[in-house]
Write a structure and sequence with these properties.
single chain; about 550 residues; mainly alpha; Rossmann fold; Arc Repressor Mutant, subunit A; three-stranded antiparallel β-sheet; elongated; binds glutamic acid
Length: about 550
């Protein structure tokens, strides 16, 4: 058997989302499993929508995930270049060969003419499949050229049905009359996705094509092109679609939808006319036409959705890899979760490192049914991963987080950061949690949780216990966890009361609520003066309120 070669082939029209990351992961795992090669190819043939920024973002996210590629941008390889826009001659050469062998032809129909043909088919309740078998007349050709038309090149659809044999989905056939003469070269000299993908997969010796099921309907076209070129087909594996828990397809559009809903709510709350968005456009300083189009669902611009959400203080759904990185997730946990989103080893095991996955992964165990993305489950998995991480990796991951967010944790000294990790590593589900949970270490509370105050301070003499605890803390010799603990023990022994009677009011005073990590460690992490001042503030405030 030839050496296994897989590829991840994103179009750089936006940032990498979790669906793409899962495809990349499965390609990576399959290649590793079979000691083969994993390639990264940038499919930038849509000139209007591809951007260098998106390419940079995809490479950055792939590196963050730890999915290194054996061949591709930045690393090179024997099949370079790995950007389709730099391979135009290769595609054109194969197009010429197909034109010469009679498998392809130049097609001159304008967009309007094609639309008219489509309408005719629709009126007759037929699917529109463009095919042209009679040649254009010399006069027609002359007119087209004079009009300045540029032809596209189409492949003549084969006269027989096409069967896709997919490792995941099974067998799927398309009848001969359902296949159109697919465009392979656009008027601008760029290949279509269909042609680029087939030529590249062949010339890059790709053995296994793993991609999302949304591409399944494209595969017959690819098989038709392969047949015309006389090339063998790679193995196909179409991966299950990823759905939200609500049942809709998980997509970047979810962000636009959430932003739209939020803005509509505000519009209603303010009693403004339904279709007037100009006021908000000027408030966030964006083009009114762009906002109008967005609200009318004519665009799903993620950047605009993000701006709207920021203004409204709204959390958008996390869809893109960068959302999870900013949200304080670990690459290991995200990959672990994505691996199980459409694949399982057939047992209950849930925790896997990338290496373990590479050993266990097989295409035969990929599901064909849609997968459901459960953010709560991912968060729980992230918590587990974070809890068990060794310190060097924890710090490394945290610093990678610092690169993409503005957080006070990034400004802590190494020692203070270590203290935060000592205290909160087992509790924080994400790095965002780590920041939030440890906030009280950096700033004294200005409010005290009402329920906790009612339970631990109002009931049973909490203020008195707090006063006694303050005195005991003022008396502690060395300000260290052990001696602080002993001071509390003495307090309990002398009064015959349980530790909770003292500990909870102190927690409320120093943290604003009754939940903190180990009290001794937490107190030791603060300065004694600070602790006493916080207790004084709480005593004063809570006594006044009583
Ligand atoms: N450029 C395509 C995409 O981003 C790749 C599909 C494929 O893997 O063939 O969806």
């Amino acid at each position: 058997m030839s050496r296994v070669r897989t590829r991840f082939a994103p179009s750089p029209t936006g940032s990498l989302h979790v669906g793409g990351a899962r495809t990349a992961l499965y390609c990576w795992l399959f290649a590793r499993r079979h000691e083969g090669d994993f390639l990264l190819r940038i499919e930038d043939t849509d000139r209007a929508r591809s951007t260098e920024e998106a390419t940079r973002g995809i490479l950055r996210d792939m590196r963050w995930l730890g999915l290194a590629w054996d061949e591709g941008p930045e690393v090179g390889g024997p099949c370079a270049p790995y950007f389709q826009s730099e391979r135009l001659e290769l595609y054109q050469e194969h197009v010429r060969a197909l034109l010469e062998s009679g498998h392809a032809y130049e097609a001159w129909e304008s967009r309007d003419e094609l639309d008219a043909l489509r309408r005719v088919a629709e009126a007759a309740k037929e699917n529109f499949r463009f095919r042209r078998r009679e040649p254009y007349t010399a006069t027609e050709l002359q007119t087209f050229r004079e009009e300045g038309r540029k032809p596209v090149v189409r492949l003549k659809a084969p006269p027989h049905a096409i069967t896709v044999d997919d490792v995941v989905v099974g067998t799927m056939s398309q009848a001969a009359d359902e296949i159109e003469d697919v465009v392979i070269l656009k008027a601008d000299g760029f290949p279509t996705y269909h042609f680029g993908v087939v030529v590249d997969d062949h010339t890059m010796a790709i053995t296994h094509v793993l991609r999302g099921q949304e591409h399944l309907m494209n595969t017959p076209k690819h098989l038709a092109i392969l047949e015309a070129l006389g090339w063998d087909s790679p193995v196909h594996a179409h991966l299950p679609i990823i759905f939200n828990l609500s049942g809709s397809k998980m997509s970047k559009r979810d962000k636009a939808k959430a932003a739209r809903d939020g803005l509509r709510d505000l519009q209603k709350a303010e009693g403004r006319p339904a279709d007037d968005w100009a006021w908000f456009a000027s408030r966030i300083d964006v083009d009114a036409v762009a906002l109008h189009r967005f609200m009318k669902k004519k665009s799903d611009d993620v950047a605009l959705a993000t701006t709207i959400a920021a203004e409204l203080g709204l959390d958008l759904p996390m869809i893109e890899v960068m959302d999870f990185r900013r949200g304080g997730y670990l690459a290991e946990a995200l990959l672990n979760y994505l691996a199980l989103l459409g694949w399982s080893a057939g047992d209950d095991r849930e925790r896997y490192t990338l290496e373990e996955l590479a050993e266990a992964f097989s295409l035969e165990r990929v599901n064909k049914q849609p997968a459901k993305f459960d953010p709560v489950k991912l968060q729980a998995m992230n918590a587990d991963w974070l809890r068990d991480l060794d310190r060097p990796r924890y710090l490394e991951a945290l610093h990678q987080w610092f690169e993409v967010v503005d957080t006070p944790l990034a400004r802590l000294s190494e020692d203070d950061l270590s203290t935060v990790i000592d205290l909160f590593q087992s509790r924080a589900r994400t790095f965002v949690d780590l920041e939030k949970q440890s906030a009280f270490l950096r700033a004294a509370p200005t409010s005290w949780d009402e329920k906790d105050v009612a339970k631990h301070i109002r009931k049973g003499g909490g203020l008195e216990h707090l006063t006694q605890a303050r005195a005991a803390l003022a008396d502690v010799g060395r300000w260290e966890a052990d001696s602080i603990e002993r001071a509390f023990q003495r307090l309990c022994e002398a009064s015959g009361k349980g530790l909770g009677k003292y500990a909870q009011p102190v927690r409320i005073a120093i943290a604003g609520c009754a939940v903190t990590p180990s009290l001794w460690q937490t107190l030791a992490a603060l300065d004694r003066e600070d602790v006493l001042a916080r207790i004084d503030r709480a005593l004063e405030h809570l006594a006044a309120e009583a």
